[in-house]
Specification:
Number of strands: 8
Radius of gyration: 18 Å
CATH topology: TIM Barrel
Shape: globular
Strand content: 5-15%
Number of helices: 10
CATH superfamily: Divalent-metal-dependent TIM barrel enzymes
């Protein structure tokens, strides 16, 4: 039975350049990469072409299961929503040119009514499907609104679109106080790539920030049990190493990428 594929989210190896991130992901042995689209936009703003990025990805043999991200779509302000849609269309077209399968729809920082979140995600999902890169709903454990696995799935499930997915994140599940057992009830077809990381013992859960994330297996979370749950659901998608650890950013990015992949594999090895 096929098992997980391993993907590198490029936040893990800041501040490497875009092409170095792509090269490193391939050299380190990942099968996929999760780019941040602002890196691509910055590269293009320097006068480069989309074809150069696509060629680099192809040469490295990297799948593109996901990309970060669409922003500002979850708002009641019609003018702001229209502007977010315009920006989303440009990013979706770019993602499609790069061969990306899905793009993450990041949640708002403030809380929003459930009905509004369902409506707006449904709209951005339809737009993204038309552009060929379905949007996957993300939750962030430190924001006020869409901050748990439960909330994200309630929104995605209420849209009723078979192409709708959520992008879970181990650390955000911990940080937001998600019930990990909720994952049992989410159909596997509605799970996009899974951001893989770990949480340290200190500081306390409520005080942790993105920068506190650590390599899988170096923290306190039971990643083996989570991997077993995903296997039981027949999830064979990408686990994407997403870290924002400033200490790692100071190190050789190839060493960080290789270390991360080794620790990812160990964290999901069947017991």
């Amino acid at each position: 039975m096929p098992d997980f594929s391993f993907c590198l989210n490029t936040s893990t190896i800041q501040p490497a350049s875009l092409l170095d991130k792509i090269r490193i992901a391939g050299e380190a042995g990942y099968s996929g990469i999760e780019l941040w689209i602002n890196d691509v936009e910055g590269y293009l703003a320097e006068g480069h072409k989309v074809a150069e990025v696509r060629t680099a990805l192809d040469d490295a043999g990297l799948a593109r299961p996901s990309m970060i991200s669409l922003r500002d779509w979850c708002t009641a302000d019609e003018a702001k929503f229209a502007a977010a849609v315009d920006a989303a269309k440009r990013r979706l077209d770019l993602a499609r040119e790069l061969g990306v399968e899905r793009i993450v729809a990041g949640p708002p920082g403030d809380d929003v009514p459930q009905a509004l979140a369902v409506e707006r995600y449904g709209q951005i999902l339809d737009i993204s499907i038309d552009r060929g890169v379905p949007a996957s709903l993300e939750f962030l454990g430190f924001v006020k609104g869409i901050n748990t696995l439960e909330r994200a799935w309630a929104i995605c499930g209420s849209v009723g679109n078979p192409a709708g997915t959520i992008t879970p994140d181990v650390w955000h599940m911990f940080r937001g106080g998600s019930d990990f057992k909720v994952l049992d009830d989410i159909p596997v077809d509605h799970i996009s790539c899974f951001h893989w990381n770990d949480a340290p013992r200190e500081p306390t859960r409520e005080q942790q920030t993105d920068a506190d994330r650590v390599y899988p297996g170096d923290g306190i979370l039971d990643l083996h049990a989570l991997a077993d749950t995903l296997r039981e659901k027949s999830f064979t998608g990408a686990l994407s190493l997403e870290l924002f650890n400033r200490d790692y950013w100071k190190q050789d990015p190839l060493v960080v990428a290789r270390t991360g992949l080794e620790k990812m594999r160990a964290s999901v090895a069947p017991g």
